[in-house]
Write a structure and sequence with these properties.
There is one protein chain. The radius of gyration is 20 Å and the shape is globular. With 214 residues, the chain is mainly beta. Helices cover 0% and strands 31% of the residues. The protein has a four-stranded antiparallel sheet, with no helix packed on it. The chain has no helices and 16 strands.
Amino acid sequence: NEEWRDYLGGPDRNHYSNLTQIDPSNVTQLEKAWEYHTGDSGQIQCNPIIVDGKLFAVTANAEPFCLDAATGKELWRVDNANKNNVIMRGVSYWEDGDDKRILFSRESWLHAVNAETGRPIMTFGDSGRVSLKSGLGTTVEKKYVNSRTPGAVFEDLIIMPLSLSEGSDAAPGHIQAFNVRTGKLAWVFKTIPEPGEFGYDTWEFVDGEMYGGA
């Protein structure tokens, strides 16, 4: 009856399970219980989660899906009209009573769907999605912003990591938290503070350019 509710096993992502049924003495006796084919191709870097007897994961074409964890039967799948091989390493889960949600990022958007049906939560952001550029300022409209790793859920917040360009056109790599219920931006932590913000005076400058911080 153990679950795997968080990406990589827990909020600290420690890859640890305390299950003891399978060990070096019996692992060779395992038999295949079921097999699921996503029907697409490309890289799958996903670590599935298990909640309430359901398995939640993502295909190579960035399509989140839900299976009956006991039988492998597909319960729902969120179509990706672009069919692009965007790397997604998994999904995040949140619940409050009967309100159960799966959150996932695709390109520059954070989506929320009903964990039972896979349908968008229409009251979340703009009809079920919110831009990951929300807290990055006014200069990022045409810049590359993505999030390949599932966000960390804390109470009613989901804290999102970002994947950015490594070139001179890179968007700011601010860490953002969004309200899981509404999609509204809750706070932004700027990895490089701006003048007047906390920590700005710890950075050093060479010829007027900031290059390091304490």
